[in-house]
Amino acid sequence: MKNIINLKDSIQYLKGVGPQRTGLLNKLGVKTVEDLIRYFPRAWQDRSHLTEIRDIESGAITTLCGLVRMRSTFRVRSNFNITRVVLEDNTGRIEATWFNQPYMRTRFQDGQRVMVHGKVEFNRTWRIMNPECEIMEDETENPIHTGRIVPIYPLTAKLTQRVLRNTIYTVLSRLPRSLPEIIPPTVVRKNNFPPADRAVNDIHFPPNFQARDQARQRLVWEELLLQQLAVGRLRYQYQQSEGTALKRDGARLEKFISHLPFELTSAQVRARDRIFHDLASSRPMHRLLQGDVGSGKTIIAVLAMLLAVDSGRQAALMAPTEVLAAQHYMNIKQLLDSCGVNVELIVSGSPAPERQRIRDRLAGGEINIAVGTHALIQPSVVFNHLALAVIDEQHRFGVEQRAMLKAKGQQPHVLVMTATPIPRTLSMTVYGDLDVTTINELPPGRRPVQTRWLARADSRMAYKQAAAAVESGRQVYVIFPLIEESEKMDLKALNSEYAHLCKMFKGRKLGLLHGRMKACEKEKVMVEFRAGEIEILAATTVVEVGVDVPNATVMVIENADRFGLAQLHQLRGRIGRGGHEGFCFLIANPTMAEGKTRMEIMTRITDGFQLAEEDLALRGPGEFFGLSQHGLPEFKLADLSRDAACLVEVRETVQEIIRQDPDLQKPENRELGRVYADIYGASESRVRSG
Ligand code: ADP
Ligand code: MG
Q1: What are phi and psi of 77, to 5 degrees?
Q2: For residue 443, how far is its CA from the centre of ligand 1 (angstroms)?
Q3: Which residue in 309, 307, 308, 329 sits closest to 317, CA to CA?
Q4: Ligand 2 is an ion; residues with CB less than 5 A from it
Q5: Can you spell out the DSSP letters for 538-602?
Q6: Ligand 1: which residue has its CA nearest to atom 9?
Q7: CA–CA gap between residue 16 and residue 13 (Å, rounded)
């Protein structure tokens, strides 16, 4: 057993840990001593107030300290025994009682000082039942589990609070006091932060709640600092790199704009100008274009791509589903056909010889714009000169996929688009490396979709409205939730629902669309729906993102409570796109209060940004819009709604640091540089020297 422990030591060598507990701790993500001391409590219990025995009250959770006077265990029946230990202080006596823990009797010796914490009851005598207890070797010893503010940790099966608390306590007491000070001294002074060592100590074993709060503040700052530094450095690297300045010298763009069937909204004009400005620079653009569903982001992307083509380069547009990719392809082809631009679709479903032919033409530079799904980032797809990469519905893609598309060109400009509006604090963290442009206006003439929530028994009303819409030449979506589209059971259920629907709408033209269909089948259905040959489309969430059929005015969502707010909003965004009034029916009998709230919110709010705020309030940032899968950093302590002000301060500080010392070489930033390199070193080599 080594005497001094280091942060990087594996926990398996710690006293009292052993292989089994190592396994349990690993499950919690704790591998090293450092992980352990940064495994923070989820709550704290105040057991610091000691009650004298004469002052105890029946029913109260109490902490008290006494000397062991008598011990006994007796059997009540074969499987049930009781251990009693009488404790005494200067003011009285109480019996500590444990059920079925006969070893408790042997843990104590007469005369020992014991601290207990538990519920006190009076039933002929005073008792404290199944208390947490701790033997104090002498009066000066600090208690760990009682007699103080005690940390409560998130656990895993077979690991107890007591074991974890003991382990962390021991490590903290034996760790050399030398945690890195990564927060700039000015910030530390201004906020009156405790030193790093003390903060870590106080978050686990605070002497009082004020100390805990100060410790927390400091640790939140550290956590946000490292995260913001990561996105800030990424942004800095973009800014340092050299790409292609796109010059507007072709005439196609002007002609195209003048032939658009509508006038751009002023928000669209702003977005376009901003993006064109970026593209004119050799510093590659990294811009997020966000705007509510139906705000008209696609046309902005098309304009940008046309600019790339106009200056003799290629552009790519990647979408998360085949349905959406195919729609973009047809849309763009139609828009640009007269301009002599070659557009091709690249999805994994198309036949091999055709794929090969397209790939050759792409590599040769003959194809100007490639539209596709993930298939675009396969290694076999090679561009001649990709100057602009557009990623639609980017929250559906991982960071790597974004990077892979980017890697298809020499520092291409990148435009990512999302219809998932997120509050500012979240966007600073998730998209901290991107510039953000928001389209905050819908094209004119849109009427907000009317949303009604109906119980299952009343669903006929919804279908009546649907029938009326079809009667007057409009189209209808009926959405069925399939949580796991690969499951056969669900597919069977979907087919029978569809059969039922066909019966209900006898004589009407119906179509079915779901994720397990082949790409060409899906495309066929969408083509028919768009052409109005299918009047009622039964679909799963494959239509959730981006699908644009303005003539569809009614949507019926079955079991709507199985969807989250973001998804419902996306689904609803499919209707009300033309000049006609849209109706969305949520069919649901939610059992949980939260489900009811969601349905109610949907009927009340149509604005995506407002919905996002509600969602954040309802679910907290962790689950917010399912972002955790999409690059939202998992914070240990920081809470983006509570710590918003802190985030703003951190962000400003980081910008200043990067401006003055981007590689963290200055003495005052070295410590930070080391810790940063330690965490991000593998993904970023440049700061390592610092
Ligand atoms: P989203 O932002 O959700 O991707 P789209 O780009 O699909 O929205 O646009 C939604 C619909 O609005 C499309 O049918 C598109 O042609 C239309 N549209 C876009 N901009 C305008 C505009 N300025 N005026 C009228 N219609 C527009
Ligand atoms: Mg879209």
Answers
A1: -145, -175
A2: 7
A3: 329
A4: 546
A5: EE-GGGSSS---TTEEEEEETTGGGS-HHHHHHHHTTSS-SSS--EEEEE----SHHHHHHHHHH
A6: 296
A7: 9
> Around Cβ 644, how many Cβ atoms within 10 Å?
15
Q: Tell me if 291 CB under 6 Å of ligand 1.
A: yes
Predicted confidence (pLDDT) per residue in 64-104, tens digit: 999 999 888 888 888 888 999 999 999 999 999 998 887 88
Residue nearest to atom 20 of ligand 1 (CA): 296
The pairs formed by 516-520 with CB atoms below 8 angstroms and a separation of 24 or more are 516/485, 516/486, 516/491, 518/349, 519/322, 519/326, 519/347, 519/348, 519/349, 519/350, 520/349, 520/350
Tens of pLDDT, residue by residue over 380-439, are 999 999 999 999 987 778 777 888 999 999 999 999 998 876 666 677 777 777 888 999
- The pTM of the whole model exceeds 0.85: no
Contact (CB, 8 A) for 410 and 242: no
What does the pLDDT look like over 596-616, one tens digit per residue? 999 999 999 988 888 887 877
Strands 314-318 and 343-346: unpaired
Query: Distance between CA atoms of 488 and 465, rounded to whole angstroms?
Result: 32
Determine the average pLDDT of the residues in 11-37: 88
Sign of torsion over alpha carbons 475, 480, 481, 484: negative
**Is the CB of 257 inside a 6 Å radius of any atom of ligand 1?**
no
Rounded distance, CA 211 to CA 195, Å?
12
- Give the Cα separation of 549 and 315 in Å (integer): 25
* Distance, CA of 25 to CA of 12 (rounded, Å): 9
Q: How many helices (H) and strands (E) does the chain have?
A: 22, 20
DSSP string, 384-447: S-EEEEEETTGGGS-HHHHHHHHTTSSS-EEEEEES----HHHHHHHTTTSEEEEE--PPTT--
Strands 314-318 and 386-391, by their bridges, are parallel
Contacts of 125 (CB under 8 A, 6+ apart): 94, 95
> Cβ neighbours of residue 153 under 8 Å, at least 6 residues apart?
39, 41, 42, 161, 164, 165
CB-count burial class (<10 Å; 0-12, 13-18, 19+) for 112: middle
Nearest partner of 206 among 219, 225, 188, judged by Cα: 219
Q: How confident is the model at residue 41 (pLDDT cuts 50, 70, 90)?
A: very high
Q: Supply angle C-alpha 685, 686, 690, rounded to 5.
A: 110
Spatial distance between the Cα atoms of 622 and 618, rounded to a whole number of angstroms: 11
Burial tier of 485 (Cβ tally within 10 Å: 0-12, 13-18, 19+) = middle
Q: Which two tokens stand for residue 346?
A: 């690249």
Condensed to tens digits (0 to 9), the pLDDT of residues 490-543 reads 777 888 889 999 999 999 999 999 888 887 888 889 889 999 999 999 998 877
- Between CA 412 and CA 405 the distance in angstroms is 9
Q: Give the distance (Å) from ligand 2 centre to CA of residue 624.
A: 21
- Is residue 458 over pLDDT 60? yes
Alpha helical stretches, state H, 49-116: 103-107
Whose alpha carbon is nearest atom 1 of ligand 1?
294
Cα separation, 151 vs 28, in Å, equals: 16
User: At which residue do the structure tokens 């195919």 appear?
Assistant: 326
- Cα distance between residue 573 and residue 569, in whole Å: 6
Secondary structure of the chain: what % helix, strand, coil (to 5)? 45, 20, 40
What angle separates helix 593-604 from helix 608-619, to the nearest 10 degrees?
160
